[in-house]
Amino acid sequence: MSAFPEGFLWGGATAANQLEGGYQEGGRGLSIADALPGGKDRFKIVSQPDFDWTIDETKYTYPNHVGIDFYHRYKEDIALFAEMGFKCYRFSIAWSRVFPNGDETEPNEAGLKFYDNVIDECLAHDIQPVITISHYELPLDLAKKYGGWKNHYLIEFYERFARTVLTRYADKVKYWMTFNEINSAAHFPVMGQGMVPSTGANDKKNVFQAWHNQFVASAKAVKIARELRKDLHVGCMILYATSYSYDSNPKNQLANLQQNQDFNFFCGDVQVRGEYPAYTKRLLAKYGLTFDDLQITDGELALLKQYPVDYIGFSYYMSMAVETTDRDTSTVAGNLMGGVKNPFLKASDWGWQIDPTGLRIALNELYDRYQKPLFVVENGLGAVDKPDENFYVADDYRIDYLKAHIKAMAGAIADGVDLMGYTPWGCIDLVSASTGEMSKRYGFIYVDLDDQGQGTLDRYRKKSFYWYQDVIKNNGLEKKKPVKPKVDPLDIDLS
Which residues form the active site (predicted)? Predict the structure, then answer.
């Protein structure tokens, strides 16, 4: 029997801003992703004090404007997902395609019609949509005019957006998530909270206020969903990086405990448990803040308590190590954050440490803490793929990575973890969020497009496409045939 339960949600994951394109079609407004320059320096550029969201095509390229043209090719791509056997497809709804500026009172019908078509195409192939309501694509006007999520007005705008899409698709979409990697703002608030240094991103008071506003908005979305249908499932979504103390030094052990609390658990504690954890006092004090510095009402706290999320979605790409005693250690890169190099781990082409055992640890830590279903909604290997003359990619390195992580999930399920599904990131090549590159590829499907925007945009199946097709068919990794034991000659009865 498979280690994975019947009905396990195998699929893949993408985000609207990284693959849709059509950035000015169908009445769509600009999003913050449209203002992020392409290239490895995109985070350095938006971290400059004078960055003000201006789009300057004389200085930079903007690959998110085109993505991989899913806007026009969604039928072709969903058919490929169906060929792999997807049970679900996680994608996001671009807020600015539905409310172009973010603060309108009436939605853009053309934008909704596009998602009508995408959802219906999924359902026609027996693929369940898993929708992220807000995935790093805040309408640009809400960042420029209102300063991002630090502004309390965004709760009202998000509630209107969530009510619009939840109401329209309640009969077709069962699984939802409110915010993508909500805790990522701890290190980089530009994408999750729509704030840059010129609008207060470097002031931690703004980051915590923005989080609170998002917590309230998330609870309102849960409330709307429960009023619409009892069988809708609304989850949170966090970036999880399993964290280890570099050694047994008690100082590093304590620092690692606090790293887990502050990054891996804080946002989940509020959204799943429905209240701020006790260590919030210490976390705020680290930045010279108290609860009195934030605008929080009793009514909002009651709302958080009454409407926690139903499940925990999370991304897992890497683990990190914590060292605070000034030892001579080298550092590595990571998903929006770096850390101390773990000598026991290898790293990807982009320096992210590969640690499948860390996923099993993450699943156990999260399930032990919350006792609610878990959903691995992002996991994958960003790598440089080199296609042959027929655009075929023999990506055994990706297969090895995913196979090891699937084995880790099987182990966690054997441990007793309630795991709903698995949607590897970038199931089709798309624009990288961290670097704005096409050359950092994750997909089972190769897209002929380079970092300069050159290529046919044609799609080609990689070796991993067929491998993952087999994984889904078997509801897990391929089954090994039992080996017939050899007969010891001394055991043969010669009588």
Answer: 378
Residue 445 lies in a domain: yes
Q: Exactly one of 121, 137, 181, 378 is catalytic; name it.
A: 378
Q: Which of 100-109, 209-218, 246-255, 324-333 has the lowest mean pLDDT?
A: 324-333
Residue 438 lies in a domain: yes
CB atoms within 10 A of CB 422: 26
- Write the DSSP string, 125-177: TT-EEEEEEESS--BHHHHHTS-GGGSTHHHHHHHHHHHHHHHHHTTT--EEE
The pLDDT value given to residue 348:
82
Q: What is the DSSP letter of 26?
A: T
Q: Mark whether 378 is an active-site residue.
A: yes
Q: How far apart are CA 430 and CA 380, in angstroms?
A: 13
The answer to whether residue 4 sits within a structural domain is no
Q: What is the pLDDT of residues 179-192, one digit of tens each?
A: 999 999 999 999 99
Provide the token pair at 111: 């934008």
CATH number for the domain spanning 194: value is: 3.20.20.80
pLDDT of residue 494: 36
Output the pLDDT for position 327. 75
Query: Is residue 73 in a domain?
Result: yes
pLDDT tens digits for range 443-456 = 999 999 999 999 99
403: closest CA among 426, 424, 378? 424
Q: Rounded to an integer, what is the distance from CA 375 to the centroid of its chain? A: 11
Domain limits at 115?
A: 9-491
Q: What is the pLDDT of residues 129-158, one digit of tens each?
A: 999 999 999 999 999 999 999 999 999 999
- Per the rule left: phi > 0, alpha: psi between -120 and 50, beta: everything else, 42 is alpha
Our count of domains for the chain comes to 1
- Residue 425: what are its φ and ψ, rounded to 5°? -75, 145
